[in-house]
Write a structure and sequence with these properties.
With 152 residues, the chain is α/β, with parallel strands linked by helices. 24% of the residues lie in helices and 26% in strands. The protein is built from five helices and six strands. The strands form two sheets. Strands 3-2-1-4 form a four-stranded parallel β-sheet. Helix 1 links the parallel strand 1 and strand 2. The longest helix has 9 residues. The two termini are 23 Å apart. 24% of the residues are buried. The model has no long low-confidence stretch (mean pLDDT 90).
Length: 152
Amino acid sequence: MLSVIMPMYRSKFIGWLGLESLCHQKDINFEWELIIAEENGKSFLEFGLENILTYKEGLKKVGCKQVKYLKLNHWIPLSMKYSIMAKQLNEDSKVFLIQPTDYWSPLYRMSKTFELMQNADWVHGKTFIMYDMKRDEIHLRTKTLSNFLDGC
């Protein structure tokens, strides 16, 4: 089993992106779950459980067995949010990955990660595409060991 953790913060207008990308995953031959933690309240511009549940059928079609929603009543640092979500992982989960709400996951991200993690403790993609909406520009970002400064 694989677990996807999705921290949401001020995701009202972008929360659909990460969820939609999960609905389009390919070659899923394993069960997986989605765990979302989100601050709630007017000032947090939350995406909300009601909107999340509109993706339930699409997620189910690609193997998602359950969606857990953790409603937070105040802001917490991202590292604490990761910790809270990690404590909610299904006991059968062998792999977990982080899905930011404002990132589109490539079609084979989950299946490739699941495969790679059978022989590794940690993996990270080398390249990813960034789209600058204001400038209508696409950028290819490449990470190497020498410029990978945001590792956990």
